[in-house]
Amino acid sequence: MSQSTRPAHRPDVDGLRAIAVLAVIFFHAGAPGIWGGFVGVDVFFVISGFLITGILKHQLADGSFSLLRFYERRVRRIFPGMIFLLVVVMAFASFTLLPIDIEKLGSSAVSAAFFVSNHHFLSSSGYFAGAAHDQALLHTWSLAVEEQFYLVWPVLMLVAFRLGWRSSTWLAVGILLSLGVSEFMVRRDIDAAYYLAVSRAWELGVGAWLAMTPIGTGERKHLPAAPMALLGLFMIAYAVRSFNSMTAFPGLAALVPVIGAALVIRAGRNSGTGNVVSRALGHPVLTWVGQRSYALYLWHWPVMVFSRMVWFSEDGWSHVALTVGLSFAFAEVSHRFVEAPLRQAWPGLAPGRVVLLGLLPWCLVGGVAWGLSQGHSTRTDLDARQLRLAGYVAYDGDAAYRGGSCFIVGQKGTFDSARCLRSTADKPRMLLVGDSHAAHLWPGLEGVWGKQFHVLQATETGCRPLVSAPHGVPACREFMRHILVDWMKDNPVDVLVLAGRWSSVDLPHLKATLQAVKPHAREVVLVGPAPQYVTALPRVLVNSGGDPQAVRKALVDKLFALDDQMRAVSSGQGIRYESLLRSLCGNDVCKTLAGADVPMQYDYGHFTVEGSIEAVKGLRLGGALSPAL
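The structure assignment produced for this chain is given below.
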């Protein structure tokens, strides 16, 4: 490409890339304080939209634009690293993972190969769901969004150019429409909002708008570059530090990192590398990381998933050091020996032939992935007992928890109050409220206490039973306030059981919740966190051979400290606290089997039906009502 058709290289943008990828990596590694590191993906979207649109704009202006050549560059940029990743990941998985895991990996690899993995993972699990941590190719969803955008964006730009739409007004309208769709979807189906291109297109569009919008001298005068860039970095840092899995995202919340990235890019564009912030971002260390950001993004997540699934590595600084170090090592190998050489290979070859050369191995890898997805596993070393245990990884917990009616899964289904909150006067009422970690107690509550109580249920995935959390998914806030405030005010219950997948961010809001519900229940019981593992318990039992020390290594330790903190909050409010960790764990080892070859939990932390019954047997419920029973 001639110099006239490519915008000048921006070292500060490489530095911004580095910040984005490091935020994602440290977030996924579980580094303390990086609760919102997932916004690094949003920064990437802005950068991608800016760089691609800048190239397209120059090419359209000088008449050198070619759709075929555009896609040739995408093949050179994307295919080598992705093919290398898929080959290594599938080869490693074929000899280390369980058969069901290999099938799932094959399916996700097929979707990644066709750039539809965002749809694939939307249909299988939410981004923040525990099960997602076992999906080695989950991170390819963002690459799918980008490639879906690039399928249509060059064509739209070409049409706009030929129609004489040189102004960016039409793009601004599109950005606002996509942002509106994103905010609407956050309130209706947050997983869809997170994964789908239609709700993410505005983020790439903001970058495109930057590339298409000229800067006047007045803007330089009133918006000094260094303060602008500092403000942008602060906005990104704020999102990284303050956002978390409870943030209603993307929607309007994504404006914080997106505008932040736009300000940094705009500031550098104002003055090149002349301002102090741009010079700092252009530091050789940051640009070195930024130039490897694609490889780092590709490799970091499989490294972290396999470290948990195979070696039971738990979040902590040792895990951060190990996984980040390995991510950089694999990324450097991929960048230096695969991506860089193939990106420049065969310079005189026609674009069509380059695309064909890229598609051939791509299809071959896709074929292998399809074979794995059909159950053609290479694992032959598992005995009958191990295979029975391994089968629980595919356990349908949603059905056991009354999914779709009394347990709303991923905001899909309709809460059936007539069924789930129905009772008669012949027995006292016990109401279970919370997320999936409340729903998994329902089989046990019904099985153990069903003869003495009407066991009512109001549960929804990702919705901890809190009434005062300032952030979070709007649908969750509305659902919990409806049950815990509005419904209970008119329908007091005898026993209220609050349970969830608690985290430290919930602690400040527990006190207000307990105060709000106490007047409407004769007894309130707060149930602490269930034992959780770094990967699915059946996988731990199979891969460890049942070795207690290996099982103990896979247990998430930080929950024990949270358990003590929750007990203190509950005690301060005069509320009964029930610790699943204390009742199920002793001598640092938790109960793992609910029966012969029946695990207590089928994934990282959700109980099987048998496990739920065992867990509930250890809870003290109905104490305040015992004289009446």
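Interim note for the steering committee: The longest helix spans residues 67-96. Residues 52 and 208 are 8 Å apart (CA to CA).
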